[in-house]
Design a protein that fits this description.
Strand content: 15-25%
Shape: globular
CATH superfamily of the largest domain: Neutral Protease Domain 2
Low-confidence stretches: 1-20
Distance between the termini: 25 Å
Number of strands: 26
CATH architecture of the largest domain: Orthogonal Bundle
Number of helices: 11
CATH class of the largest domain: Mainly Alpha
Mean pLDDT: 90
Helix content: 25-40%
Number of domains: 4
CATH topology of the largest domain: Neutral Protease, domain 2
Length: 531
């Protein structure tokens, strides 16, 4: 199959509309529905289960891929997602499932009541933030079927949220066995990194804005009306997905359509970086992968800058479909609005709309690595002389008080003192920002190869775990393979072994099973001890 970009149909076509070079969304969904019904036994579907299409992709040759979520007796199934692959004629070609275990429960009535699950989750949030004074704690349990952690069982999925002493958001998802009350898993649910405008980090950049009366708004009508607003250092009165009373961020306006001064003292400067990051990330996904917007539906997200007080973080929130940037404390971090941070955080949104990799264990590491990979590729795509592409994450936002030159290093992840270079059976026990090192290391080796070299004016050295020499195939092919794997072959439960399989399948799709690219993917994974 050619490496040509695929056409995404999810949300991009009105019902019954036809793409210029392919079937309509309704046609693809109709084909998939017939295949799912015919292949129900193969997919583990029974009369107790329901399905809902999440994403639709049509390749240039007409091959169709539809991703589904699953319910059991009307309860969401964690790890129940699956994908069916169809020929151009709409016939069954293959499938992938997040779990292959039979899905059958004796009862969907919990022994543990919802208030107890809520209490256990808030206790877990406090334990994960020992020494921090938390206030405004809220927990909202949802009854689910957990098929991610062994034999399917009834569970409470509870998001516990609160604020720290500075009013910044804290959130943790806790998965509790609804029969025994034992904790199954837990993970942080804020996915972090960490006209023309004069930005803090990217120099003077072009901006598309909207004229409103005699002034201009920082709203881009050419990219789904993405806009940037200023929270005036306020925080959310309610936290993340539990309510929709987020800190207001009115769109920024300007009299002459020349935004910012390039200095922290001008509040528009950070907004320029945020809008530029959104624009560049939109363009990267659109022009390189054929994806129109984060959700693939042509709709823009929005940015909130100057969030909280000395907030040392940035995060993507699916609930508001928005990016939020802190100003940093000035000692450890500056405003967290650099290009690779923007690309990283918004790529969390892409992951949530496609493979939805669980933000825990090995899938969580792959989730974070996906954002590091695409955040880095966005930086290379921009080719901005003020911020040349390299394989470091967050190098523009760190200050001397941080103690090193970047958040993470993809050529040798362990240089940050925490991340894993090589896969081991215990890597899934690490924080997801550190277990991501294995995939980051793979990505660097696949693109650049092993050995010392200078990239973006910075010395890099791609080491290997098995002492082999790896020859890179370039950044463009890395991006094509990882995007294909994410959108067509990975599921919510994909671990490192599964990522190897998914990327090999993607390389086979794009370049052929006997290609140099296919061999390079296998060699790069072996070089980080996966396979």
């Amino acid at each position: 199959m050619s490496a040509a970009a695929t056409t995404l149909l999810a949300g991009a076509l009105s019902p019954g509309a036809a793409a210029a070079d392919g079937p309509s969304r309704d046609t693809v969904l109709g084909n998939a529905a017939a295949v799912v019904a015919d292949q129900a036994a193969r997919l583990g579907l029974t009369s107790d289960q329901g399905t809902k299409a999440r994403d639709v992709i049509v390749d240039a040759d007409g091959t169709q891929h539809v991703r589904y979520d699953r319910t059991y007796r009307q309860l969401p199934v964690l790890g129940g997602d699956f994908m069916v692959h169809l020929t151009a004629a709409g016939d069954y070609r293959g499938s992938e499932r997040a779990t292959t275990r039979p899905l059958s429960l004796t009862s969907v009535e919990p022994s543990v009541p919802a208030p107890k699950a809520a209490g256990l989750a808030t206790a877990a949030l406090r334990l994960a933030n020992v020494g921090e004074t938390l206030r405004g704690l809220v927990a909202k349990p949802q009854l689910v079927v957990d098929a991610l952690h062994g034999k399917p069982r009834l569970a409470w999925r509870t998001e516990a949220t609160g604020k720290d002493s500075l009013g910044n958001p804290m959130a943790r998802v806790v998965l509790t066995d609804a029969v025994t009350g034992r904790e199954i898993d837990a993970w942080d649910s804020i996915e972090t990194a960490a006209g023309d405008g004069r930005s803090l980090y990217a120099g003077t950049v072009p901006l598309q804005t909207t004229k409103s009366g005699s002034a201009y708004q920082l709203t881009d009508p050419t990219r789904g009306n993405t806009y940037t607003g200023d929270t005036q250092n306020k925080t959310d009165s309610c936290i993340l997905i539990l309510c929709y009373q987020r800190a207001a961020a009115p769109v920024l306006t300007d009299a002459d359509n020349h935004w910012g001064t390039g200095a922290d003292s001008n509040r528009a400067s950070a907004a320029v970086d945020a809008q530029y990051g959104t624009d560049t990330t939109w363009d990267y996904y659109k022009k390189v992968h054929g994806r129109s917007g984060i959700a693939g539906d042509g709709k823009g997200s929005y940015n909130r800058v100057h969030y909280g007080s000395a907030y040392n973080n940035a995060f993507w929130d699916d609930g508001c479909f928005c990016m939020t940037y802190g100003d940093g404390d000035g000692t450890t971090f500056g405003p967290l609005v650099s290009l690779d941070v923007s690309g990283h955080e918004m790529s969390h949104g892409v992951t949530s709309k496609t493979a939805a990799l669980t933000y825990s264990g090995e899938p969580g590491g792959l989730n974070e690595a996906t954002s590091d990979i695409f955040g880095t590729l966005v930086e290379f795509y921009a080719a901005n002389p003020s911020d040349p592409g390299d394989w470091r994450i967050g190098e523009k936002v760190v200050k001397s008080g941080f103690g090193r030159s970047a958040l993470r290093y993809m050529d040798q992840p362990s240089k940050d003192g925490n991340s894993a270079d090589c896969w081991t059976s215990s890597v899934g026990k690490l924080d997801v920002h550190y277990s991501s090192g294995v995939a980051n290391h793979f990505a660097y080796l696949l693109a650049e190869g092993s050995g010392p070299k200078t990239v973006g004016g910075v010395a890099h050295n791609g080491t290997t775990c098995d002492g082999t020499k790896v020859t890179g195939i370039g950044k463009a092919k890395l991006g094509a393979i990882w995007y294909r794997a994410l959108t067509v072959h990975m599921t919510s439960s994909t671990k490192y072994a599964g990522a190897r399989t998914a990327t090999l399948s993607a390389a086979k799709d794009l370049y052929g099973a006997g290609s140099a690219e296919y061999a390079a993917v296998g060699a790069a994974w072996s070089a980080v001890s996966v396979g």
